[in-house]
Amino acid sequence: MIVLGDRLPVDVAEWLRQRTKPGSIDVLCPDAFHRRNVSGLCGDFPDASYLLDLLDQGYTLFDALVPPQTLVFLDRRQCYRLPDWEVVPGGFALAYDLLWRRNGYYAHLVGTVVEVAPDGRMFKLLMNEYYWTWVTLPSEGPAGCQMPPTDSRVKVLGIFSWIGGATPHLIHGVLVTRLGEA
User: Fold this and answer.
1) What pLDDT does 50 receive?
2) What is the pTM of this model?
3) SS3 readout for the chain
């Protein structure tokens, strides 16, 4: 398990790639909704494109209420604080405490914008003829979170939240990238 407070050092990322399958690692990211409310930023964990890259590599990412530091757990028993590999005591108890702090998971979707809500903070994304979802955007944010126009193809990094009775048809957008015209 990894808790991201910042990007993984390059040597650590390479070390992980050589020793395990990315899908076997749970990556806990500091709560994006809380940070957005405090800072007015959109998915300000070091940058949303880094999280999207981790998803593309096969890692499982969770939105969680975790400390803003980078921790690596080996077998959920030994814990180290990066970048100095400082031993953190009580790794087993800490790992399970942090796992209970997950409140959603990150998803990577590609589709076409078919509808924009009247208030302009949400759009309907059609992935295929059988699956669609609504994507919400924060009230403020950088260019990566601007409302895409209807009929545009987009790639979305979003969070499916387990809080507030969210359904699979509501994704909280962190990064929305408009894809080039085919």
Assistant:
1) 87
2) 0.81
3) CEECCCCCCHHHHHHHHHHCCHHHCEEEEECHHHHHHHHCCCCCCCCHHHHHHHHHHCCEEEEECCCCCCEEEECCCEEEECCCCEEECCHHHHHHHHHCCEEEEEEEEEEEEEEECCCCCEEEEEEECCEEEEEECCCCCCHHHCCCCCCCEEEEEEEEECCCCCCCCEEEEEEEEECCCC
